[in-house]
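testing teh design pipeline on a random one, pls ignore if ur not involved
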């Protein structure tokens, strides 16, 4: 349910932003930026959970690889 809510908010922000650019109404752009910031700060973990896990795994593997190279010297 939360994931759907954040996706809808992102879609609304996109529509507001594009409408604001098209019409020259900068208030829509500010509202879209505010909605985007809220979704980024509160919904990032929910929306991108799989991506964040894969990124952390790759980062840990790269760090272990760099450490193994340092230890060989």
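output:
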């Amino acid at each position: 349910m939360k994931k759907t809510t954040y996706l809808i908010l992102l879609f609304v922000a996109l529509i507001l932003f594009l409408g604001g650019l098209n019409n020259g109404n900068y208030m829509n752009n500010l509202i879209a930026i505010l909605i985007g910031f809220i979704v980024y700060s509160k919904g990032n973990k929910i929306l991108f959970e799989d991506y964040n896990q894969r990124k952390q795994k790759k980062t840990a593997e790269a760090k272990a690889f760099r450490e193994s190279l340092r230890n060989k010297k």
